[in-house]
Amino acid sequence: MFSIGELSKRTGVKIPTIRYYEQMGLIDAPERSEGNQRRYSKEGPQRLSFIRHSRELGFTIEDIKGLLELSQHPDKPCQDADKIAVQRLSDVRARIAKLRRLERELKRITACQADNVASCAVIESLADHGLCDAEH
Question: How many CB atoms are located within 10 Å of the residue 30 CB?
Answer without folding.
Answer: 19
